[in-house]
Amino acid sequence: MRLFYNLLLAAAGIYVVLALALYLFQNSMVFLASLPGRALTATPENAGFEYEDVLLTTGDGLQLHGWFVPAGKSAATVLFLHGNAGNISHRLDSIGVFHELGLNTLIFDYRGYGQSEGSPGELGTYIDAQSAWDYLVGSRGTTPDRIIIFGRSLGGAIAAWLAKENRSRAVIIESSFSSALDMARRIYPFMPTKLITRLKYPVKDYAGQLKSPLLVVHSRDDEIIPFSMGQAIFDAATVPKAMLVISGDHNYGFLLNRDRYIQGLREFIDGQLTGAQIPEQNQENDIDQDRRRIDNRGTDAN
Fold first, then answer.
1. Which of 1, 50, 203, 227 is most open to solvent, judged by the fewest CB atoms within 10 Å of its CB?
2. CATH number for the 2-301 domain, one of 3.30.750.24, 3.20.20.70, 3.40.50.1820, 3.40.190.10?
3. pTM for this one?
């Protein structure tokens, strides 16, 4: 009996230590600025694009590094907010997509990522995003109706916050979660997640406060952030909205579905730039056919 109680006490101690570690080291577990590394491994020039190095000054005095990749003087501009790992040099594929769509791109690294100063945190990502918006509107003279806010994964949560604070032409949220708490419950169902989750990122709540038309992009095959979370974001929004359903995994689904993906983005963005009204829709036409085509490509697709 004593052995049983000792084992029970040890298990309880391990549980408490694990919960405490998840609480204390949450930022370092979420903001993976060093995965695969902070060094820039390429520039848009490597992909054949002209670009400008940009330094953004945040409201709390930090310097952030980014790139402005022009597509044309009259082009609209995508303000791109990337995910929780890596840096802007790992997003050349996305820059290529935007360039193909005829859009300028402003992409930057959050504090603590790439060549940007500081340490990352939830509030910091919001400040950084607002600083990028202010740079476009203030320093570059871009009117808000020529800005499309675009966020992928963690960047989708930041984009949702930015788009509730600022009226842009449109907002696109790709492969994002409904809230940090929902993600914690998914990853640690055995832990008291409501007590230990310090990060909030309440994307569903932000979606209900958006000021601009919304496109949600999500894969039914996403193994990291389930499709149901993308659907929850879509359902929460009260603005004109559309949903582009793709297939493939979390990180590479948009590349595996490149033709369908670009077509869906083009239809949504062109509709917004021309002032066309979008009906509430869920763009799932031919998704099974797309999935079969991608599956047939096997590992070559990567």
1. 1
2. 3.40.50.1820
3. 0.90
